Each structure stands twice: as C-alpha cells, then as structure tokens.
Sequence to fold (314 residues):
Amino acid sequence: MKNKNLKVLLAAPRGFCAGVDRAIEIVKKSIDKYGSPVYVRHEIVHNKHVVESLKNIGAIFVEELSEIKDKSRPVIFSAHGVPKSVPEEASKLNMEFVDATCPLVSKVHREAENLNKKGVHVLLVGHKNHPEVIGTMGQLPEDKIDLIENIEDAKKYTKKNNNKLAYVTQTTLSVDDTKEIVETLKKRFPEIQEPKKEDICYATTNRQAAVKKIAPKCDMFFVIGSRNSSNSVRLVEVANKSGCKNSLLIHSDSKVPLDEISKCEIIGVSSGASAPEILVEKFINDLKKEFNLSIDEIEIVKEDITFKVPGKLN
Fold:
C-alpha cells in the first residue's frame, strides 16, 4: 500500500476548545497548589488519553463526592458543569472545591436561573443523562424545567402550567438538528423565548462547519474523539449528513481500517473538542506508514478565544 497516494483533508478548527484547555489547566494548577492527590468529580473532559495523563500526575477521578475518602483534599468539578446540589454537598462536608465548568455552560445555567426567577418555565434541548444536561437541569427545581431530546419530544410536549415558556440548549448539540427542534417548538408555541445569544458554543459550531465543508469531497471521514463525547459523536453525524456516508469515530479502542482506507482517494479528518492534537498526529503517522500522504489543512475560521482559570489558583 505504501505506493498508494492518499489525500487527507484536515479540518480546522478541530480539537481542544477554550473550555477544555481551561479545565485541564485547572487540574494541573490545583495539583501544583495543593499537592497530590486532588479529586475530580466525573471525567474532567471526555477523553481517555487526557484522563490517564492527569491520573499520572496525581488526579483521582470519582463519580460522586461520597467516594472521596479523604475529605481534606480538594475536589474539582468537571467542564460539563454540575447540579446545584453538588457544591452544596461539598460545602456541607467542608471540602475545598474548584469549579472547572466551562464558562459557556455556566452562561446556560445563569440563563435558566434568570428565566426561572421571572416565573418562566424552561425547556432544555439536549441529550438525557449527558453530564452537561444533568448539570443544567440541576440548577432548577425539578418541576420548573423539562428536557426536549428530539423532534418527537418537541411535537408532543404539553405545557405544564400557564407560565411563559423559554428554551435553552446543551452547548454541544448538532447545529442543524437543534434548528429543526427549535423551529418545531416555535411553531407550536409562537411566544416561546429564545436565548439572547446562541447556546451551542462557538467551538461546536466551528468544528461542525469545518466538517460540513470538507465531508462532501471525501470517500471516508474520521473524527478522533471519545464515544462518550457528545461533540465528537455529533461531528460523525454531521459528516454523514453532509454527504460522506462512510464516516467513523476513532476512539481509544479503535483499529484504523487500513483496508477500507486503501480504496479511498481522499479522506477527511477532524477531532472532537476534548481530543488532544497528539491523537490526530498519531492517526496521521499510522497512515504515513502505509500510504504516500498529501495533507491539506482546510481552515474556515481562526479561533483565539481563551478563558482564565480561577484567581485562587494563580
């Protein structure tokens, strides 16, 4: 296969977003400040490689605060955000905590809270059981917020009370799918309030736009990312819908399908917002061993957004 020419269209932007960068930095700086171990509630970001590298320097990952034996050690909340009950529980246990929730997720939390204070009933468009959705739903009393997962939910939703309605969304959804769900809600409830500024984050939007541009030109499309990473799974769906029917997620247990790739002229590559660039490089190096590669990076927008870490860690 080595003499087979293969063109790789590399999507840009791809990989880490500002919220992920910040969350990883928070874990590293917390270990510098407090020593190890520091505890992290839930995977800081959905990527096995990142989690393992942080374990190696002294992070211990748990799902619930009750699993932390030594309550004198600090705990970090993941980038996906947590329900209000979690910091409350940490305070009751006198635990030091650092919140690594992505600022764009925190923005959705505040929106939901402000709407609730005004007596508005909130609909959250998102995926059930995703940690970000659990966190956002957990900002409000249970009867003040309902989850809309898909068009079917939007079509059959019935108002629970006479309160005004508003919607917010998970930050890592498919832009196009969400648009259809929102249009359905607006048809049924013309007075429904929408967010002042789009809730789907800039990184999700940009990565999907880059994939949309490249996918129609590709015989196969690969997204480097984790199976439990919402934004990575969405990128595969976007590539499929944009005209590349053979689109796959390459995760930590994946074998690169070299035989299938050998039948291609052009492949596309992107990575989810929680996948480090080193994994993209590894994928491309694996291909270089088998094919004569020509790589063309297609950049649709430059990202220069950064988020500061909490002051107490500096």
In short: The longest strand covers residues 5-12. DSSP finds eleven helices and twelve strands in the chain. The two ends are 51 Å apart (CA to CA). The chain has three domains: 5-16+202-299, 20-99, 103-200.
